[in-house]
Every structure is written in structure tokens, then in C-alpha cells.
What we know:
Layout: E1 2-3, E2 9-10, E3 15-20, E4 36-42, H1 51-59, E5 70-75, H2 81-98, H3 113-136
GO molecular function, one term: peptidyl-tRNA hydrolase activity
Protein name: Aminoacyl-tRNA hydrolase
EC number: 3.1.1.29
Amino acid sequence: MLPVSPSIVLPESELVVRFLRADGPGGQHVNRTESAVELRFDVLNSPSLPDDVRARLLARRDRRLTDEGVLVIQARRFRDQGRNRDDARERLVDILRGALQAPKKRIATKPTRASKQRRLESKQSRAKLKQTRSRSWSHE
């Protein structure tokens, strides 16, 4: 069981863990051990996720999310397989916790009179600067 929040707990059966050969330091030993971890979690078909959390996860533009709605996390930070597995699980929990809170609705506001004035003044000063450049340029 992987606890995400008091109301959401993921059973191990929903997590697919695969071990791969990691790149990076380790000498010849790295070619023989599968210390990298690939963790897959099916967001689209998971019965453990509430519908609103699922919708927020699927709406994200995350390259780790496949077209089939599977979240793929690769952990290869450590040389140890166990630490990489824990790292992948922690990252999955972080992603799921991030989708728990609904984003705040943006309240449209109008720019203040002073901010409009500052914008126009900066545009005018920029235009003057460019005009002085064009006048002093000689066409020889």
C-alpha cells in the first residue's frame, strides 16, 4: 500500500515496477546490474483515484504521461535498486499530491491608471531613443 493522502491509498497491484540497466558511473558492474527503476501507474483506469484528481492529472501537459493515460516515472539517481525504487514511489506520491488541490480560479482585474501611465511613458521614451538613433545616422 502506498499512502498518498488520508483518503487515497494506492494498492501495490496498481503499480508496475520494472528494473532496467542504469547509465552513468559504476564501471563494468553497471553493465550487469539493473539498478534503474521504471514505475508505471495507470491514471486513466485506477479505481483508487477520485474523478477530480484523475481529471487534473490527465489534463496536465506532462511528458511522463503516455497517450493511454499511464504515468511513467524513471528513477536512476542512485546506484542502489532499492533507493531508486523508493525515489520513484516518492516522486509518484508528490505528483499525486500536487493534483489533490484544485487550482485557484483566476480573478480578472483591470490595470490601474498608474500602471497604464507607466506603460505609455516607457513606450514614449523607447520611441524617442529610437528616433534619436535614426537621425544621427549618416548615409555616406
